[in-house]
Write a structure and sequence with these properties.
The complex is a heterodimer. Chain A is globular and about 55 Å long. Chain A is 29% helix and 11% strand. By secondary structure, chain A is α/β, with parallel strands linked by helices. Chain B is mainly α. Chain B has a 3-stranded antiparallel beta sheet with strand order 1-2-3. In chain B, strand 2 and strand 3 form a beta hairpin. Chain B starts with 7 loop residues before the first helix and ends with a helix. The relative contact order of chain B is 0.20. Chain A binds chain B through residues 43-47, 49-50, 62-63, 68, 99, 192-196, and chain B through 26-27, 29-30, 33, 54-59, 80-85, 87, 119-122, 124-125, 127-128, 131.
Chain lengths: 301, 146
């Protein structure tokens, strides 16, 4: 049984899907409620073990959501096995939070959405704000009763873009959410991050540069809708009815922007290109633009 | 030429990991992360003495010292929010410090891959530890080349 949405926030009420976010107050009051599962998803695989929200289970993007061999996500059976073992039922409300402004939490939410898990939400502000506000953390192990999560085949068609989709999409809105240095081609990876092996630098021609962080306030929460509209509609020119693809380096930061466009601003056709720059920047003969300008779409071959 | 040999402390650490089931290996890595010693105060005032380990996702810095007898000490610093990286650093700090320069240079480059953590931690994350090892060995080479 799902849990009622968090209606306490005037900021949330202005978003397209207000029920996709919860405040820390709301969550703290409901910890342990039946039908509610809290999931922590971090960049660091051990961070959860240093202290997590009481009752929260951990899902690691690298070792649990990805297929161990092929560069892809779990299949329906794998996802059912994972969620059953974590004690998550198909009709549970899942609230995900994590480090780094919820990058991996948004990524996990996006993967849950590929499997059509209906009620999955983010904790606004993520792990850092929870800790900054002095809310409870524990290192107690969490044991939930295993469930029988049904096998649901993953549906990549609506929310996920592949390289071929991006090639066919050139000329329609593309959002590059990486740092300006990665966009221009000065770097192939984030400042201070490991190089995950893109052979060329630059961006997909016509992509607009909107670093993910522009959607976030100083305390790590999402900016109010009016400020987001100002960036994505007024400045970038996204319009109702647009088909939009977002990408970054490996698809995690673009999940964050995907969440903003899809759930906070209500664009209906937003896909995340999870192959992102680590695929595009190493692909043979795909067009690349360098420098600060978006560049032109190449003539169709 | 003799076959390079894994120094005994590093071999013991490896065996400790391999004796455990996979989930417990993560716990052991967490224990190591808690044991990472504070670097001496002189480094806090002189960040330029450190080398940044670019292969790691979090800000990690290492510094190598070689004393007049050719004995190596490794210092490392990594933030509390990056326990995996701290764990890797702690293994190398404990396993390298006190070795001779020859022994440090003899540590095989694939040592991180022998700890049985590839599945529990992921190969990508282990690459950060390889980066630390390579950079420490290169610093030792630079310090002994004079």
């Amino acid at each position: 049984m799902p849990v009622e949405p968090d209606t306490s926030s005037a900021k949330f009420a202005a978003y397209a899907d207000p029920q996709r976010l919860v405040t820390a107050d709301w969550l703290e009051d409901r910890l342990g409620s039946p039908g509610l599962v809290v999931v922590e998803s971090d960049e660091d695989v051990l961070l959860y073990e240093t202290g997590h929200i009481p009752g929260a289970v951990k899902i690691d993007w690298h070792t649990e959501l990805n297929d161990p061999v092929v560069r892809d996500y779990l299949d329906g059976e794998g996802f059912a096995r994972l969620l059953s073992a974590k004690g998550i039922a198909r009709d549970d409300t899942v609230v995900i939070y994590g480090d780094k402004n919820n990058w991996w939490a948004a990524y996990a939410l996006w993967v849950f959405s590929l499997f059509g898990h209906e009620d999955v939400r983010l904790l606004d502000g993520g792990r850092d704000l929870w800790i900054a506000q002095g809310r409870p953390l524990t290192t107690d192990p969490v044991v939930r009763t295993p469930t029988e999560y049904p096998v649901v085949e993953r549906d990549d068609s609506a929310l996920r873009a592949f390289r071929e989709d991006v090639l066919a999409h050139l000329g329609s809105p593309l959002i590059d959410v990486r740092s300006p240095e990665e966009y221009s081609g000065e770097r192939t990876h984030m400042p201070d991050y490991p190089d995950e092996g893109a052979l060329r630098g630059g961006h997909i021609p016509t992509a607009r540069s909107v670093p993910w962080k522009r959607a976030v306030a100083d305390d790590g929460t999402f900016k109010p809708r009016a400020e987001l509209e100002q960036i994505y509609r007024d400045e970038v020119g996204l319009k109702d009815g647009d088909a939009i693809i977002a990408y970054c380096r490996i698809g995690e930061r673009s999940s964050h922007t995907w969440f903003v466009l899809q759930h906070l601003l209500g664009f209906e056709d937003v896909r995340n290109y999870d192959g992102s720059w680590t695929e595009w920047g190493s692909s043979v003969r795909v067009p690349i633009a360098t420098g600060p300008e978006p560049g032109e779409a190449p003539a169709h071959r | 030429m003799t076959e390079p040999q894994l120094p005994s402390v590093l071999a013991e650490i490896r065996d400790e990991f391999l004796e455990l089931e996979e989930p417990d290996r993560l716990q052991l890595l967490l224990d190591f992360s808690r044991e990472l010693p504070e670097a001496p105060a002189r480094y806090a005032d002189h960040p330029e003495l450190y080398e940044r380990v670019a292969e790691c996702q979090s800000p990690v810095f290492i510094a190598v010292e070689v004393d007049p007898h050719g004995i190596v000490t490794l210092h490392a610093t990594a933030p509390a929010e990056a326990p995996t990286t701290r764990g890797f650093a702690s293994i190398l700090v404990q396993g390298m410090s006190g070795l001779t320069t020859e022994d440090v240079l003899a540590i095989p480059g694939d040592y991180p891959q022998t700890l049985g953590l590839s599945r529990a931690v992921s190969p990508l994350r282990l690459a950060g530890m390889t980066g630390m090892l390579m950079r420490a060995q290169r610093q030792v080479k630079a310090l002994t080349a004079l």
